[in-house]
Every structure is written in C-alpha cells, then in structure tokens.
Amino acid sequence: MGKGQGLRCKSCGNREGLEKLPMEVKRKLSPGMIEPPPTAWRHLFRPSSVTPVKELEVAPPFHGLLFEDHQ
Which residues of the chain fall below pLDDT 50? Predict the structure, then answer.
C-alpha cells in the first residue's frame, strides 16, 4: 500500500470504510534530565555520574516564538 491508497483489512483484503483516526496520547513527562539505559549509551554520551548536574534549568517553551517578531 502506497501513499493515498488508504488501509486494507489483513484478513479479507477489504478497503472500504477503513481510515486512520487522529488520537491524542497523553505523556507522563516531568522536568529534569532523562538518561538512557547503559545498553543504549553511545560514544558521545556523558553519564551524569561523571559530570553531575547540580541544578538543571528547564528552558521555557518556545513554540511559535521564533517568528513572532517577523510578521
């Protein structure tokens, strides 16, 4: 199935009445540092145990602020 061809039932192959519905998924996020598990570490990652973060500043959201002055 390519772009714009809709969806198809896996069991019978029917294409009628099948469409994607938008969903809003609530995420449980809290401010702070998120560290990947040790199995996912890469060569550029510095663990917080090596350089501890004393106070982590969380930047305010900037969505929509980039182009406000240039309208």
Answer: 71
3-state secondary structure 12-71: CCCCCCCCCCCCCCCCCCCCCCCCCCHHHCCCCCCCCCCCCCCCCCCCCCCCCCCCCCCC
Token pair of 65 as six digits: 């602020």
Contact 47/36 with Cβ under 8 angstroms?
A: no
Rounded Cα distance, 48 and 51, in Å: 5
What is the pTM assigned to this prediction? 0.27
